[in-house]
Design a protein that fits this description.
By secondary structure, the chain is mostly helical. The chain is 66% helix and 0% strand.
């Protein structure tokens, strides 16, 4: 699993702390920290909540940053 860099960036851009995110998702501090670090996966419900909260599609928040680039490079070879 990988760290949720897009989510961390969004959280910081919106000046939110992890404790704010915990309240938004109604989960514990430890649980949110593990999810943000990629140690535990977000549930689909949690992903939808965050998608709605930030007004962004799921893939913009949760897909790896190089997802599309990796596919293109492999096809071009």
């Amino acid at each position: 699993m990988q760290m949720q860099w897009n989510l961390i960036r969004l959280r910081k851009e919106h000046k939110l702390l992890q404790k704010d995110m915990e309240k938004i998702l109604s989960i514990s501090k430890d649980s949110y920290g593990m999810k943000e670090r990629g140690q535990v996966q977000f549930t689909m419900d949690e992903m939808f909540i965050l998608s709605r909260y930030f007004g962004l599609p799921l893939e913009q928040i949760f897909l790896p940053r190089n997802f599309g680039n990796t596919e293109i490079k492999e096809v071009a070879k």
